[in-house]
Design brief:
single chain; mainly alpha; two-stranded antiparallel sheet
Length: 498
C-alpha cells in the first residue's frame, strides 16, 4: 500500500485487520486438517522435516548418534547466529571516532557502460542473512538469480538508461520499470504450474466437500481434536468483520466484499492442498486471481485491489502454515486442539507486534528502495496497478517486456514439467529469474554465494552438509535479523546514531 501511494489506515485498524484475516485462516485449517492430514495423509514436506529435526535436537542422551548429531546441529546454529550478529553490529553500529568497522557493500572491480558496477547495484553486500537464505535455496534457484541479476542490471538497465526509460542507474529508479516483466514472469510461471497440476486442483475441490461432510475423528482421538462446529462458528463470527473492514477501510463495495470470505475458504483449501503436496503455497496464483476479479468489481481502487487479495492470500497462507505445523504435531504425537489454540494466540500477538514494528523499523518512504527492497511487495503492487488501472497505464516498452516475460514464465514452467530428467537441472528457475528483476543485483550475488557454498559443501562432504547446512544457514538468518531489529529499535529510540 505504501508503494502505490495509498493512505494506510490507523494502526489499531490494521492490527484488527491482520488479526481477523489470520484467525480466519486458522479456522479454515480445522476441516482441512482432517481431510488432508488424517484421511489423505499428505506429506507437507516442511512439517515432516521439522518433526525429524525436533526428534534429532531433543534426542535423549542414551540415544547415541542421534543425540550427538542433535547437539552438533544446535552448536552450529548458535555459532552461526553469533557470527552473523557480530557482523551486523560491526557493519551498522558506529564506534566513536572510528565509525562503522565493516562496509555495507564490497564493490566489484568492474565497469558497465562507463560506470562502476556498484552503481548498477552489482556488488557484494556484507549481509549474512542473504548468504543464509541462498544456502537454504536450491542451487538451481541461486544460479538463476545470479543470471537474472546480471542480465537485469548489467545488460537491461544500461539499455533502459540510454533510451531514457529510467532516470538513473539506482535500484529504486530501475525497479519501477523492471517490476513489470518481473511480475509477469512470476505470475505466468505460477499460474501455469498451478494449472498443470490439474489433479491436485481437482482433488482440492472434491476434497473440500469431503472435509466439510466429515463428522470428526475416531472417539479415542476426539478429545485432542478441534470440534467440527468450531469452523462454522469461527467463520460466522469473523466473515462479517472482514466484510465491514473491507468496506470501511478500503472502500470496497458491499457486493464485492461479500464474495471475499467464501472465496478465501475455497482458495485456502486449494492453497493448503498444494502446500501439502509440493511444500509451495501458491500465492502467486491465488493472489492475481482475486486481484483480477476485484479489478473488475472495483476498478481504480488500488488499496481495495491489494487488500482483497490479502484476504484470499492471507487466509490461504495461515491455513497452510498451521497445517504444516499440525503435520509436525501429528508425527510427534502433539494435540491438534492445543496447537490450534496456540496459533490463535500467536496470530493475535503477531498482529499487535507487526503493525507498530513496521512503522518503527522501516523509515517512511524507504520501502521498495535499496535497503528495504521488499521484492514480493513490489510484485504485488505491480500486479495491483495493472489490474486496477489497466495495462494502458504502462509505456509500450514495458507492456512488450511484460508480455515477453509472461510468455517466458509459461515456457519455463512447461519445461520444468515436461523436460527430460537430465535436462531439468539446467532449466533456469522462473522464480529465480523473476525475483532477480525486483531485488538489487547485490542481493542476487550474495544469495548465489550462499547457494554455491552450500552446494560445494554438499558435493565435497555430503554427510556433514546434510547435518549442518540448514542449522548454519538458519543461524545466519536468525542472528543477523535479531541483531538488526535491536539496532533499529535502539536507533529509533535515539540511543544510536547510524
Amino acid at each position: 500500500m505504501v508503494m502505490v501511494g495509498a493512505t494506510l489506515p490507523p494502526t489499531w485498524a490494521m492490527v484488527g485487520w491482520f488479526a481477523v484475516i489470520a484467525a480466519l485462516g486458522v479456522f479454515v485449517a480445522i476441516p482441512v486438517k482432517r481431510q488432508l492430514i488424517d484421511v489423505e495423509q499428505l506429506v507437507f514436506p516442511t512439517g515432516t522435516a521439522t518433526a525429524e529435526t525436533i526428534r534429532s535436537l531433543h534426542a535423549d542422551a542414551t540415544e547415541g548418534p542421534a543425540a550427538v548429531e542433535g547437539a552438533g546441529k544446535s552448536r552450529a546454529l548458535g555459532l552461526a547466529a553469533l557470527v552473523a550478529a557480530a557482523v551486523a553490529v560491526l557493519r551498522d553500529v558506529p564506534f566513536g571516532s572510528v565509525g562503522k568497522i565493516l562496509p555495507s557493500v564490497l564493490p566489484l572491480p568492474l565497469r558497465i557502460a562507463g560506470r562502476q558496477a556498484a552503481e548498477w547495484t552489482l556488488a557484494i553486500k556484507t549481509e549474512l542473512v542473504l548468504v543464509g537464505a541462498g544456502a537454504l535455496m536450491s542451487f538451481r534457484t541461486c544460479w538463476s538469480m545470479l543470471l537474472g541479476g546480471v542480465l537485469t542490471y548489467g545488460v537491461l538497465s544500461p539499455s533502459l538508461l540510454e533510451q531514457g526509460l529510467v532516470a538513473d542507474p539506482s535500484y529504486k529508479s530501475v525497479v519501477k520499470w523492471t517490476v513489470w516483466p518481473g511480475a509477469a514472469l512470476l505470475v505466468g510461471s505460477g499460474l501455469t504450474s498451478f494449472a498443470l497440476d490439474g489433479k491436485s486442483v481437482l482433488r482440492a475441490f472434491t476434497g473440500m466437500a469431503a472435509a466439510l461432510r466429515r463428522r470428526g475423528a475416531p472417539p479415542e482421538e476426539e478429545r485432542d481434536e478441534c470440534p467440527a462446529w468450531w469452523f462454522p462458528a469461527g467463520f460466522l463470527a469473523l466473515a462479517p468483520i472482514v466484510v465491514v473492514l473491507m468496506t470501511a477501510l478500503f472502500g470496497i463495495p458491499w457486493g464485492a466484499a461479500l464474495l471475499a470470505a467464501p472465496l478465501a475458504v475455497l482458495l485456502g483449501f486449494v492453497a493448503a492442498r498444494v502446500t501439502g503436496e509440493t511444500d509451495v503455497t501458491p500465492t502467486k496464483a491465488v493472489g492475481p486471481v482475486t486481484q483480477l476479479l476485484y479489478g473488475g468489481l472495483a476498478p481504480g481502487n488500488l488499496a481495495g485491489n491489494i487488500m482483497s487479495a490479502n484476504v484470499t492470500g492471507g487466509v490461504g497462507l495461515h491455513a497452510a502454515d498451521l497445517l504444516t505445523t499440525l503435520k509436525t504435531g501429528k508425527l510427534l504425537g502433539g494435540s491438534p486442539r492445543a496447537q490450534f489454540v496456540a496459533q490463535l494466540f500467536g496470530v493475535a500477538t503477531g498482529a499487535l507486534v507487526i503493525v507498530p514494528a513496521f512503522r518503527v523499523l522501516i523509515p517512511e518512504g524507504q520501502v521498495g528502495g535499496d535497503e528495504w527492497p521488499a521484492p514480493a511487495c513490489l510484485v504485488w503492487a505491480g500486479v495491483s496497478k495493472a489490474f486496477a488501472h489497466g495495462l494502458d497505464a504502462l509505456d509500450g516498452a514495458a507492456r512488450g517486456a511484460a508480455l515477453i516475460a509472461g510468455l517466458l514464465g509459461v515456457a519455463l514452467a512447461l519445461l520444468e514439467k515436461f523436460a527430460p530428467r537430465g535436462l531439468k537441472p539446467y532449466v533456469p528457475s522462473p522464480s529465480g529469474l523473476g525475483i532477480a528483476m525486483v531485488v538489487p543485483g547485490s542481493n542476487a550475488i550474495s544469495m548465489f554465494l550462499g547457494g554455491a557454498l552450500a552446494e560445494l559443501w554438499r558435493r565435497r562432504r555430503p554427510r556433514s552438509a546434510s547435518l549442518y547446512v540448514t542449522p548454519a544457514a538458519s543461524g545466519f538468518i536468525a542472528g543477523e535479523s535479531l541483531a538488526g531489529v535491536v539496532i533499529a529499535l535502539l536507533s529509533a529510540a535515539g540511543m544510536l546514531h547510524r
